[in-house]
Write a structure and sequence with these properties.
The structure holds 2 protein chains of 2 kinds. Chain A is an alpha/beta fold. A 7-stranded parallel sheet of chain A has the order 8-7-6-9-10-11-12. A 5-stranded parallel sheet of chain A has the order 2-1-3-4-5, with helices on both faces. In chain A, helix 1 packs parallel to helix 11 and helix 4 packs across helix 7. The longest helix of chain A has 19 residues. Chain A starts with 12 loop residues before the first strand and ends in a 13-residue tail after the last helix. Chain B has 12 helices and 12 strands. In chain B, the strands form 2 sheets. Chain B has a 7-stranded parallel sheet with strand order 8-7-6-9-10-11-12. Chain B has a 5-stranded parallel sheet with strand order 2-1-3-4-5, sandwiched between helices. In chain B, helix 10 links the parallel strand 10 and strand 11. In chain B, helix 5 crosses helix 7. The two termini of chain B are 23 Å apart. The relative contact order of chain B is 0.14. Chains A and B meet through helix 4, helix 5, helix 7 and helix 11 of A and helix 5, helix 6, helix 7 and helix 12 of B.
C-alpha cells in the first residue's frame, strides 16, 4: 500500500496508550500510514496528555476509552475483549475491532504440539539426551500412542475446531463441550465438562474465560479424567484451579499437563519444575513471526477502512 | 516350541523379552562374560535371531549360527540385516511394518512443532525462572508451510496426511514417482529441498540413501529451512548438518536418530533451534507391544511351518 494514495497521515490520528506487542516489530507499518500519538512516550501523565493532544482522537489502539470525547473506535491486537469496558463502549457508540482468527492456527498448532509432547515425552526425552543420560542408560520410558485416544476439546470455536481437525488426522477420537451444540460438526457433543472428562483420555482447553468458566477444571474434573489423564491449556490460566492441579500432579493423580497459561503469569508453579510429565510455554501459543505480521495487517486494514468510511472488517458484536 | 532357540541381540524391550522367554529357549547376546564360549556352547541350538535397529544380523553373526533359519527384526528398517546374505543362505527375514507407522508419523509432527514453535527451548526458559512480565517469545508458524517428504512409503504417507490437516502443501521425492499420489513429485532431493520449508526424512536406509542429506541438500533447504529426521542417522551427513546449524545456514533441526547412537554431536547441545530425541519414534506402550507380538507371531508361524506374517526375505 502506497501511503501517498491516502489522506495525509497527519489527519489520520491513532492514539496508543500502551504499545501493542506487534509494535516491537511492525511499528513502522503503522507510522507510515497514520499519525500515531504515543501517550506512553510523553513525559506528561496520561490524563494530561489526552487533555492536551487527544480531544479529537477518533480511534485508539488496544484499550483505554476514558477521557476521549471524540472516540469512535477501539482497534485491539487481541481476540478477546475482556480488557475493554464493552458496556461503556455500547453506551457511547464506540465500535471495537479484534483481530478475528489470525491467531487461531498458531494457538491450535501449539495445543497439538503440547499434547504430542506430553504423550510422547518429547521435551523430557530431549532433557534425557541433553543431560547425557542416553549414553549411560539406553532405557527411556515409553510414551503413549495418540491414535485411538479420546480427546475432549473444551470450546469448539476457531481454535478448538482447528485442534479437532489436526487431532482427528492423528487418529484421535474427538469429542467436545461447548455452551451450545454445534450443528455442523462430526464430533460428539457433551453438555457438561465432567461427563466429557470421564469419557476422555485428554482435555484440550480452547474456550474463553468468563464468570461461568473460571476454575471449570477443578478437582472433580481432574479426578474424572484419571491418573493417566492429560490436560493441555492454551486458553487462560484461570480456567484451571491451579492449586488443585499442582496437588494432583504431585500426588500422581494426573498423567501429565501441557500449559501455555497460568493463573499468575509470569509465575508458573515452581512445584512442578521437577516433574517430567509437565511441559511449559510462556504464554507463547499465539506468538509467531507470521501471526505478528498478520495482526499488524488486520489492525491496519481496520484503521484504513475506518478512515475511508467503509465497513469495519473484524467488528466485535456488541452483545454486552 | 520351547525347544526352539531364539537369540535376542539386545535388550530392546522387556515385554518382548518376556514373550520370547515364555515360548522359546531364549539366549541373550548381551552381558556375556565370554562370547566365544557362548557361541561354542549354544550356536547349534539357535534357530532364530531377534534383532533391532541397534544390533541386527550381519554376516559375522549369521556365520556363527549354523542352525539359523530366521531373523525376525524388532523394527521396520532392515539396514542392520544383511538381506542379500540371508537370501543366499536361505534364511527368512521378517520386520514390523504398519504397527509403528502412526507413532513414527506422530513423532515427525511432534518434532516439527517442537522445533518450529520452540517448545523444548521455551520449557527450559520457564523452568529457569527467567520469564518476566510483558516478555514474549516469537516462534515460527507451522500451519500452511511447505512440507517436503523424502520417501513416500507408509510412514511418509502418514506424515503427509497429518501435515495436510495443518493446511501444509506436500511435496515428495521417492525412488519413483507415485502416479496415484496427489502430492507434488520432485525428481531429485535437491529440487525437493529447494522447494520446501520443512524437509522430513522418511525413507529406508540403503546404500543409495546413505548421506542422501548432504551439503548440497542442506544448502538447498537454506537458512530458513528445517530438517526433521525420523529415518536413520546415516541418512544425513552429520558433520555437514552440525556445521550448517552452528553457522546458521539451516534454521533448525528435529532429530530422533544419529549416526553413532547414543552419541549425539556435542555442538548440538549448545543450540536452541535443535530438538534431539533418543530414537523413540516407535516407543509407546501400545506399539512396543504390537511390534513384539508381530515378532513372536512371525517366529511361531515359521516354527509351525505356516506362512510368515510380515516376510521381507
Amino acid at each position: 500500500m502506497d501511503p501517498q494514495d491516502h489522506q495525509q497521515p497527519e489527519l489520520r490520528q491513532v492514539l496508543v496508550l500502551q504499545p501493542p506487542f506487534v509494535f516491537n516489530i511492525h511499528e513502522h507499518l503503522f507510522a507510515d500510514r497514520f499519525h500515531v500519538l504515543k501517550a506512553y512516550d510523553s513525559p506528561l501523565p496520561t490524563r494530561d496528555f489526552l487533555q492536551a493532544n487527544a480531544q479529537s482522537v477518533k480511534v485508539v489502539l488496544c484499550s483505554g476509552i476514558r477521557d476521549l470525547p471524540a472516540l469512535k473506535l477501539v482497534v485491539t491486537d487481541a481476540t478477546g475483549v475482556n480488557h475493554i469496558d464493552m458496556a461503556e463502549c455500547v453506551r457511547r457508540g464506540i465500535k471495537v475491532t479484534n483481530v478475528g482468527d489470525v491467531y487461531s492456527d498458531d494457538v491450535a498448532d501449539a495445543a497439538v504440539g503440547l499434547l504430542i509432547d506430553v504423550m510422547r515425552r518429547i521435551t523430557s526425552g530431549e532433557r534425557f539426551v541433553r543431560d547425557g543420560c542416553w549414553t549411560t542408560s539406553r532405557e527411556y520410558p515409553l510414551g503413549a500412542k495418540l491414535g485411538g485416544k479420546r480427546v475432549g476439546i473444551v470450546g469448539l470455536g476457531n481454535i478448538g475446531s482447528r485442534v479437532a481437525t489436526r487431532l482427528e488426522a492423528m487418529g484421535c477420537i474427538v469429542s467436545y463441550t461447548s455452551r451450545r451444540k454445534k450443528q455442523s460438526t462430526p464430533f460428539t457433543f457433551y453438555p457438561n465438562i465432567l461427563q466429557l472428562a470421564f469419557d476422555s483420555d485428554a482435555l484440550v482447553l480452547c474456550c474463553a474465560l468468563t464468570n461461568n468458566t473460571r476454575h471449570m477444571i477443578d478437582n472433580k474434573v481432574m479426578k474424572a479424567l484419571g491418573k493417566k489423564g492429560i490436560i493441555v491449556n492454551v486458553a487462560r490460566g484461570a480456567l484451571v484451579d491451579e492449586v488443585e492441579l499442582v496437588k494432583c500432579l504431585l500426588e500422581g493423580e494426573l498423567g501429565g499437563v501441557g500449559l501455555d497459561v497460568f493463573e499468575n503469569e509470569p509465575n508458573a508453579p515452581r512445584e512442578l519444575f521437577e516433574l517430567d510429565n509437565v511441559v511449559f510455554l510462556p504464554h507463547a501459543a499465539a506468538f509467531t513471526n507470521e501471526s505478528f505480521y498478520d495482526v499488524a495487517q488486520v489492525m491496519i486494514a481496520n484503521l484504513e477502512v475506518f478512515f475511508g468510511n467503509k465497513p469495519l472488517l473484524t467488528l466485535v458484536n456488541n452483545k454486552f | 516350541m520351547e525347544a526352539m532357540g531364539v537369540l535376542m541381540t539386545y535388550p530392546m524391550s522387556s515385554y518382548l523379552e518376556q514373550q520370547l522367554q515364555n515360548r522359546f529357549t531364549l539366549f541373550r547376546l548381551w552381558n556375556l562374560p565370554n562370547k566365544t564360549h557362548f557361541f561354542n556352547h549354544n550356536a547349534h541350538n539357535i534357530q532364530a535371531v531377534v534383532g533391532s535397529t541397534h544390533i541386527g544380523a550381519d554376516p559375522e553373526l549369521i556365520d556363527s549360527l549354523p542352525a539359523l533359519e530366521i531373523v525376525s527384526s524388532f523394527s521396520v528398517g532392515l539396514d542392520k540385516v544383511d538381506l542379500a546374505y540371508c537370501k543366499e543362505k536361505g534364511i527368512r527375514v521378517t520386520n514390523t511394518p504398519d504397527v509403528l507407522t502412526d507413532d513414527v508419523a506422530d513423532t515427525a509432527i511432534g518434532l516439527i512443532l517442537a522445533t518450529l514453535r520452540r517448545i523444548c527451548e521455551d520449557d527450559r526458559f520457564v523452568r529457569s525462572g527467567l520469564w518476566k512480565k510483558d516478555e514474549f517469545k516469537l516462534s515460527v508458524k507451522f500451519s500452511g508451510k511447505k512440507v517436503g517428504i523424502l520417501g513416500l512409503g507408509r510412514i511418509g504417507t502418514a506424515i503427509a496426511k497429518r501435515a495436510e490437516s495443518f493446511n501444509c502443501s506436500i511435496s515428495y521425492h521417492s525412488r519413483s514417482e507415485k502416479p496415484e499420489s496427489k502430492y507434488k513429485y520432485y525428481p531429485s532431493v535437491i529440487k525437493l529441498a529447494s522447494n520446501c520449508d520443512i524437509l522430513v526424512v522418511a525413507c529406508a536406509l540403503t546404500e543409495q540413501t546413505r548421506h542422501i542429506i548432504n551439503r548440497e541438500v542442506i544448502d538447498a533447504l537454506g537458512p530458513k529451512g528445517v530438517l526433521v529426521n525420523i529415518g536413520r542417522g546415516a541418512h544425513v551427513d552429520e558433520r555437514e548438518l552440525v556445521s550448517a546449524l552452528v553457522e546458521g545456514r539451516l534454521a533448525g533441526a528435529g532429530l530422533d536418530v544419529f549416526e553413532h547412537e547414543p552419541q549425539v554431536p556435542e555442538e548440538l547441545f549448545g543450540l536452541d533451534n535443535v530438538v534431539v530425541l533418543p530414537h523413540v519414534a516407535s516407543s509407546t506402550v501400545e506399539t512396543e507391544m504390537a511390534m513384539a507380538d508381530l515378532v513372536v507371531g512371525n517366529l511361531e508361524a515359521h516354527f509351525l511351518k505356516k506362512p510368515l506374517l510380515t516376510p521381507v526375505v
